[in-house]
Design goal:
With about 140 residues, the chain is mostly helical. The protein is built from four helices and two strands, in the order H-E-E-H-H-H. The chain has helices at about 5-10, 70-85, 95-110, 125-140; strands at about 30-35, 35-40. A two-stranded antiparallel ribbon has the order 1-2. It is globular.
Amino acid sequence: MKDYRLSELKQMCEKRNGCVNCEASFPDDTRCVFMEYAPASWPVSENTDDNQEAKADADKLRLSLVPTEIIKAIARIRMYGTEKYGDPDNWKNVEAERYVDAAYRHWLEFVKDHKSVDEESGLPHLWHCCCNLAFLCEMEKYDE
């Protein structure tokens, strides 16, 4: 993945008025690196995939490929759940089958109406579905 200097970002983001990744605005002395800011003086490598001598990460997950909206959506649902139940780890005390049922209920509501929101939380059913699926993924922890 290439890191872009501010001048390049401005050209690429002219129509979007912000970062190509997260649409954020940024001051003139920064550049975007995975939706975070870093000084423009940081080195920029044009060939990050092949240089394993500088950083041996060829077999590691490229988390920068994950769309950020799903992460933010799950975080919003988790914040709501933590406020509602008090304990951020409370979800670990629930049987997987209940998350399957909840994910399915929220998914069906989303399919009926893509703009639908959960009556209790006021948050989109799609976000609730994603969070339930994230819980299931964490509970299963499939071997790679």
